[in-house]
Amino acid sequence: MFRPLLQADLNQVMRIEADVYPFPWTRGNFEDALRAGYTAWAMFDTAGSMIAYAIAMLAVDEAHLLNLSVAGPLQRQGYGWKMLEWVAQSTRDYGARSLMLEVRPSNDAALRLYKRYGFERIGVRPGYYPAVGGREDAVVMRVPL
């Protein structure tokens, strides 16, 4: 089941973030995104446990996927694909004609997902992400909607 991500969901979000990322978003990052009105969705199982969430920023005719995460134990089971499809359709419904994102080049699973979905590399942002011992570049990708 998909529904808008709410402030009340942030405890579950923060548990997933801390589990799946060495440099997770802060609670403040999520609160700011919700306050700014970014499109934010979560996927839940039938028991009400969060499976995945995503946040995208809409700008005229393009959407920027800021965060898409799947709970660690549930990764590689198709939930990332389902969440990505939901975000793509939702942002398309708001008028977006393309979806872009940044991803760590070291995040092989995410790169495979995005490439399989049809995202193409359009650039690199040097030193974009914090990393152990310094910074890591970001691969910038886009897919038409």
Describe the model:
- By secondary structure, the protein is α+β, with helices and mostly antiparallel strands.
- The chain has a single domain (2-144), classed as Gcn5-related N-acetyltransferase (GNAT) (Aminopeptidase, 3-Layer(aba) Sandwich), CATH 3.40.630.
- The protein contains four helices and seven strands, in the order βααβββαβαββ.
- The protein has helices at 10-20, 27-35, 79-93, 108-117; strands spanning 2-4, 39-44, 50-59, 62-70, 98-103, 120-131, 134-144.
- The chain has a seven-stranded mixed sheet with strand order 1-2-3-4-5-7-6.
- Strand 4, helix 3 (79-93) and strand 5 form a beta-alpha-beta unit.
- It is globular and about 40 Å long.
- The model has no long low-confidence stretch (mean pLDDT 96).
Would you kindly provide a brief summary of this structure?
This protein has 145 residues and is of the alpha+beta class. It has 4 helices and 7 strands. The chain has one domain: Gcn5-related N-acetyltransferase (GNAT) (Aminopeptidase).
Question: Class in CATH?
Answer: Alpha Beta
Task: Give the helix proportion (percent range).
Answer: 25-40%
The total of helices stands at 4
Q: Using the alpha-carbon principal axes, give the shape.
A: globular
Biggest sheet strand line-up? 1-2-3-4-5-7-6
Notable characteristics:
alpha+beta, 145 residues, globular, single chain, 31% helix
SSE topology:
Layout: E1 2-4, H1 10-20, H2 27-35, E2 39-44, E3 50-59, E4 62-70, H3 79-93, E5 98-103, H4 108-117, E6 120-131, E7 134-144
Parallel strand pairs: 4-5
Antiparallel strand pairs: 1-2, 2-3, 3-4, 5-7, 6-7
